[in-house]
Design a protein that fits this description.
alpha+beta; three-stranded antiparallel β-sheet
Length: 60
Amino acid sequence: MADTTRQLITPARAAEIFGVHRETIYLWIKDGRLPAVKLSRRMTRIRMADVDALIERSAA
């Protein structure tokens, strides 16, 4: 099993996982619902562990 605490994914991949549009992911990031890392002006990444945590919070 991969170490999800260090695995980074793109907002597009996160959108695929959640079944939402990529812009929704950016709104969640802006609202603080989903933490993200800005690597540069045009490069945002999301920790897979944060995606998993949001899925767990949503399921509860």
